[in-house]
Write a structure and sequence with these properties.
about 270 residues; alpha/beta; Rossmann fold; 8 strands; about 40% helix; about 20% strand
């Protein structure tokens, strides 16, 4: 699948997800929990605390398609400017805006018209003023150099077919000393190609997760320092059993190749001060 096709598939999937939320059908995984083979999506479930969800419109919570909670793990301070790459229904942008306060600013960047419309509606319901949702691609961020303090993202960078460009763009818009603090899907160690493809299909429909070592290498090549990857949720083969079985995969046979290899992780790095 070429770059253009990947982008169009992502846009279609997330546009459909936004429409399901606005039509009252709810949302989970890649079109319903049944897509994951479970009643509760083990990837997106229980990422946000009751106090966080209680302060937001229900549609912002329902539209969450992430694999982590970067706003809980990132250090955000009063008056800072935050950018969320692939902001979807806006949950992480709205949470960030509250943490940076009225003197701060939170930007959300998304390429999907339906998600942007949903996010702006959620912003209006939440009554949060210090937020702006931008239309654009994470490979071409429509903000000037050295303009944000923190870049966050929630299980979106893995969907890009040009991750090197995404990381260079994140580096460009960060101020010197700025922080990169994202949740993403990570593969730890070597996994046979067929097994990897099926597991990533389960994790995110078209997820293109990097190996942990490759993530380090790409961040360093973009110019980042103080790089760290912290696993936040390791996916168990049993979580994916029903989905993989439906795909004709012998789950028990591949279990040793999968166990502890696929995970959500919090990825940290800094742009040098000098």
């Amino acid at each position: 699948m070429n770059t253009t096709n990947i982008k169009e598939v992502v846009k279609e999937k997330y546009g459909q997800a936004a429409l399901r939320v606005t039509s009252g059908q709810g949302n989970s995984c890649c079109g319903g929990a049944s897509a994951c083979g479970t009643d509760i999506d083990p990837i997106t479930a229980n990422l946000y605390g009751d106090s966080e969800k209680g302060a937001l419109p229900e549609d912002a919570v329902l539209a969450s398609l992430g694999c982590g909670n970067p706003t809980a793990l990132a250090e955000l301070h009063e008056g800072e400017t935050v950018l969320d790459l692939g902001s979807g229904g806006g949950i992480d942008v709205l949470l960030s805006a509250r943490r940076v306060g009225p003197t701060g600013q939170a930007y959300g960047l998304d390429m999907t018209d339906e998600m942007l419309a949903l996010a702006r509606a959620n912003q209006a319901k939440a009554g949060v003023a210090n937020v702006e949702f931008l239309k654009g691609e994470i490979e071409n961020i429509p903000l000037p150099d050295n303009s944000v303090d923190v870049v966050i993202s929630n299980c979106v960078i893995n969907l890009s077919s040009d991750k090197d460009r995404v990381l260079r763009e994140a580096y460009r818009v960060l101020k010197p000393g700025g922080r990169f603090a994202v949740s993403d899907v990570i593969v730890r160690g070597d996994v046979p190609r067929e097994v990897r493809e099926h597991m990533l299909l389960w994790v995110g429909c078209i997820a293109g997760a990097l190996k942990d070592s490759d993530y380090f290498t790409k961040l360093a090549a973009a110019g980042f320092e103080n790089i760290a990857i912290e696993p936040t949720r390791v996916y168990d083969i049993q979580d994916a059993r029903a989905f993989l079985s439906a795909e004709g995969i012998d789950v028990d046979a591949i279990a040793p190749q999968v166990q502890d290899k696929f995970m959500s992780a919090f990825v940290r790095a800094n742009k040098p001060v000098a």
